[in-house]
Sequence to fold (629 residues):
Amino acid sequence: MIIRYWLAGLLIFVIEIVTATTPTIDLVTIQIQDGVELNRLQQFASDVDVNHSNLRQGFVTIYADDAEQVILKTAGFNFQVVIENLSDYYAQRAIKDKQTRQAITNSMGGFRTFAEIEQTLEHLSKNFPHIVAKFSIGKSFEGRDIWAIRISDHPDIYEPSEPTVWFDALHHAREAMSGESLLLFASWLVERYAVDLTVTRLINSRNILLIPCVNPDGYEYNYQQHPNGGGLWRKNRRKHNNNSYGVDLNRNYSWEWRYDSRKLNDEVYQGTAPFSEPETAAIRDLLTQQTPSMSVSVHSYGNEWMFPWGYSALPTPDDDIFRNYATKIVATNGYITDTAWNLYGITRGASDDYHYGMYKSLAFTVEIGDFNDGFWPAPTRIPVLFDTVQPGYSMVAQWAGAWAEVLTPVWSEQQGNGDEWFEAGEIWNLSLHIKNEGVLPLDAEVSVSSHSPDILIEDRSINISLEPHQETLTSPLQFHFADMIDSEIPYILDIALNYEGFISNEPLKILLGPPRVLANNLATVAVLGKVAPGNFVCIFVYGAAQVMAEVFWSLETTTAQYLSNIEGAVYLAGNIQPLVKGITDINGQLGWLLQLPQVTELAGKTIYLQALLDYDGKPSVSRLTMVRF
Ligand code: 0X9
Ligand code: CA
Ligand code: ZN
Fold:
């Protein structure tokens, strides 16, 4: 039973007795002019839930009930209620959002309940037993299982010879997108096994450990209080003897942990001792057994990708390495990156400091989503937010061992006309520029092969040994281009990378002959009809009359990386067969009715179309046309 004081409009104190429900919480912003005011707020609000992520814009957000708002108002803070009853707001938003889209099946405002998380893990391990195993790493305070899955070949055993990459989420019960992102990542990986060579290499050569819900009690508590999503409980559910609850699990790790006389009901209460909580103790024990080389702890929200330290302003000895990796990751999603200290001020006892301090595991903490997403993003945002972190998760998994990255190739002409274009009869040398992006040494055998009799490549494999972060230019391989070859045709060669017992291929695209000049009669490609999986659309080419035209396509992801591929997009591997081919009619048109592939994954993706035209034997390319699914 909670007794709550309430200041009514008539200036009368009414004592309201509320049984078994928590007071409703509003989202409040407070303008902060300077450090003095921030300190004053922190004193007043030592047990109020303050989020600092907007401090740079001159305000903080507070999750405060009425009683707390009265205190703040009395103290003269310039505050504004932005959203009344935030839990309700989140739940209503989810319902509204759901009505505009049918695809959402998870019941807690679009997110999985704890029971649904258990089901998902069960299904993954039943449907993909050769690469997924589920196990409990220990029990929560209230006795729930803290589940983990390992995605690897031989998933039922821990293979110490393979590097471990660690992902965990939901230290904080209300950060719904964190756990969801790991479950989506698990599906993303297993669906690509034996389909995508890079993902297959990853699964075969790593222990990929996922712990989607570190705090099942807090998560379940939110479900009981707010079954449609929107719950705002953060900590675990340890019962203190004064009838308040919870320890902040991300303050309970032992690295530079300090007792700092926080109140029991403080949102960041650190516990009586490091690892006083069964949830963090379970993580600690798993870490000693299956120590990762890299880890990601997922939270929300803030669009941030941070790294240690959180307890100190000093840079870690590996600051350069952290920054290099993080910079590559945020190039894919536009998140902010820095040390936890620089982004959040001092935080002691957080998981990333422990992973790194104790084991030198390169540990990141991610805050998914922006201020509008909040703790319970609208369901339609779930796939979008997943796309912001999936490339980063994949990169971390790649870098956790040895990882060969093929950089821009270096060509030099040995015999030919001296210009920079590959032409019939010429001989060229290719040196591959390869970098070990991973944290473990790389020993690889590299070779290049051609599927075309027009390109003969010296048949030799090259051995390379690279320390972490080291790069090399291989000794040159010789290329002969046949005397009689069709110019203007894109050739896709294979770079085979053989290491850690697995061969993966990367495409190397080359174009023979000087680049085509855009003709005066520039052609365009148009798409008529609704671009959606399974739909029929008309593809038209408009150019000059009686011109030979072929339309090529390429599919790119929505991440920022696609920009680098636009140029030459028609030449991507797998897309070298034209989609439409023919001769434009007397009006300069060529049309085709086409059924788009029935793949839901295309939703939100962009397809590029480009026509290759032949004006009296002079080839040219059309403008690039973008169509969005
Ligand atoms: O306070 C936290 O635990 C994290 N923010 S959250 O809003 N998700 O609660 C930030 C932790 C920053 N410190 C470290 N990463 N060490
Ligand atoms: Ca394995
Ligand atoms: Zn958090």
Observations:
- The chain has a mean pLDDT of 85.
